[in-house]
Amino acid sequence: MSLYLPQKLLSSPEDIRFIVEKHILHSSSKGNCLVSDEDLAFFFSSGLVEDIKRKVVGPVINEFSSKLAAQIVNERSTNKMAYESKENSKEKHLAVKIDRHDSSIIPLAYVVKRIIECYPDLSRTHDTPNQQLEVCATTIDDKGPVYSLCRIVFPNDELNSICRQAVDVELKKLTSAGEVALNCGNVQERTIEESFEDRICFPTACYIVHMHIKFLKFVINHHDEFTRKAEQEFLESCAADFTMRITEFCFFKHKVDSDKFYFESNEGKLETNGGFYAPVNTTAKMYPEIRLCCAVDSEECDTLKKFLSDSLPGNIGDDLGALWSLCGYGHQFHRGNFELFLSSVEESCLSICGAPFKALDKKSEKQLLLARKKEMLLQLEKTTDEKEILELVIMLLYQQIRGFFVNGKELNGYILTMLRKENKIPSSVGEKLLMASIFLKNGQQMPKELVLDLRSFGLSKNISKI
Q1: Measured between alpha carbons, how far is 218 from 224 in angstroms, rounded to an integer?
Q2: Assigned domain for 189 exists
Q3: From CA 28, how far away is CA 30, in angstroms rounded?
Q4: How far is the C-alpha of 348 from the C-alpha of 369, rounded, in Å?
Q5: Does some domain include residue 188?
Q6: What is the sign, positive or negative, of the torsion defined by CA atoms of 110, 114, 120, 122?
Q7: Using one digit for the tens of pLDDT, what is the confidence trace for 183-192?
Q8: What is the β-pairing status of strands 291-294 and 261-265?
Q9: Are residues 304 and 436 located together in one domain of the fold?
């Protein structure tokens, strides 16, 4: 920048930061991050940011939640005798204080350590966090570009909400049937299977498939011109995500060599790190397009099917291969495959993973929608990213007026087009949604008034009365 700006201007860090943020960062594609301190500025592209989210979030949550749950159970056990011996109610209260896992907040240094492990070049920006960092350690030095990036990439409310759910799952596993002997040889297998079957894991994954198919049927009946796009995205993303979850569970259950298979998206190899037994993120803005690959020098679908068939007992491999085929692996997309996918998982899920594909009753649907709405509203109140604000508003409005789950790369495409045609969406609201979409597509920053309007749309209880 010294080639283009006068020295007097360069001498002011505040001015330089303002120029970079307002005239460089905002003119590039959305999703990029700029972090700076008194001496340096670091630019993280949207691709790198997404890569960090994918490689770090899942492993950090899994590792942290399991360690914290084990710590809580151990401390409960240690304090049990002291609790039972207390006669004063106040002392009893203090003795069981550890039962309240309000500390299930991932320390910033814990996340920074994992990012630096994935991207060693970043370690040169500041000292690497202590390798022996305790689970609930308090961050002492929270300065540096990676710390600043974490505050953007890992919003506290969203990350910690998922983390608390994961800790709850781990606590249920470790305390069920009074078993707290964490070092027993078969505990890990038992608890992982239980967490996979927990309500916020496999059953919720089934419910999400049902909700997306409900939206698909609406598209077919009312907006046939978008049917092909909607079906294909569902199969390549949501359906593939569900199939990946049960495939990973089968590999774990039947001890399939992890070097034999891997999952990939358009951005490269996916690091799943035990995501198949983690809580399902019901507010995901988009799923990656997922494929299952065999680690051999061949791209033939028959080779993958053969590996599945040879590696898994009975018809499990054949049934999984059929599901991956319906998700688009090795085959040209055909309209109607989503119905075949639903019927296939309903028929084969029990034999594949030992749990039937869960039907979505009215009570479960209501609970799912309420929990999802609450989480999305929380995200909308906290986020400052304009793309995320528009996506959340679209998701909230479609859920409000139709009870639909919508997400994916077409949120700002045909889904917005359909939403604007809904009778319950006032024309003034539709125009402002379109205006916001145009700003994003042109890489321009939205006016503050428009951002405020978007937030008010998402937070409204009845959009038709605005």
Answers
A1: 9
A2: no
A3: 7
A4: 27
A5: no
A6: negative
A7: 444 444 447 8
A8: antiparallel
A9: no
Residue 400: exposure state from Cβ atoms within 10 A (0-12, 13-18, ≥19): buried
Beta bridge partners of 291: 264
Distances (CA, A) of 14 to 23, 104, 147, 287, 459: 14, 36, 20, 38, 34
Query: How many other CB atoms are there within 10 angstroms of residue 415's CB atom?
Result: 26
Is 386 within the bounds of a domain?
yes
Structurally, the chain folds into a number of domains equal to: 4
Distance between CA atoms of residues 54 and 340, nearest Å: 30
Angle in degrees, CA 164, 112, 116, rounded to 5: 135
Angle, CA of 194, 105 and 123, to the nearest 5°: 105
CA distance 145 to 34: 9
Tokens of 437: 């979409």
> Do residue 141 and residue 234 come from a single domain?
no
Locate 145 and state its tokens: 């570009």
The CA-to-CA distance between both ends of the chain, in Å, stands at 47
Residue 21 confidence (pLDDT):
62
What is the rounded distance in angstroms from the CA atom of residue 116 to the CA atom of residue 101?
A: 28
**Which residue ranges of the chain lie beneath pLDDT 70?**
1-5, 7-10, 13-14, 16-17, 20-31, 36-41, 57-58, 73-105, 124-143, 153-160, 169-190, 272-274, 296-302, 329-336
Task: Determine the structural domain holding residue 233 and report its residue range.
Answer: 199-353
Greatest Cα-to-Cα distance within the chain, rounded to the nearest angstrom: 75
